[in-house]
Amino acid sequence: MEVSSRFVLLVVLILIAVLAKQSLAAKHAVGGSQGWDESTDFNSWASAQTFKVGDELEFKYTAGLHSVVELANESAFKSCDIGTSLNSFNGGSNTIKLSKPGTRFFACGTSGHCQQGMKVKITTAAADGSSPSSSSSATTPPSSPGATPSTSAASSHQLRFISFFALVASLVVYFI
Ligand SMILES: [Cu+2]
Q: Ligand 1 centroid to 157 CA: how many Å?
């Protein structure tokens, strides 16, 4: 009896871990409601987001007018050197998975758009939630009127989700 209840506990804990990890993966609509467009302030948008391994970026834009080009490095990003692209996407809607920690650089491939600010730098933290950023908050403005607190709302929702599963697991273990 003792052995079997411990086994069930283990299975339930593994299940919670898997579900929690899935629930924490988020899809980020690049540029928020304004989408992938020259008028969007991507610095502000990106600094308000937390990107984790397993999350996805969703680029939404007018097909033919814009595209998405992944640049190889920071200097290509700074100088809008579209020629060094690692990947390019078009069609108006692209989903890109952030499969590992690190920084990735995206710009629009349409002539002149990157120079107008249509570019974004995405820094992905490890899935355990630890962030490599240390002093980035110093350059972040305290708040902008247009920014929505969607990140904190989402994480409190995820916390409730995890708590719910922990509660269910405790009940299961208690009644065995
Ligand atoms: Cu463009």
A: 34
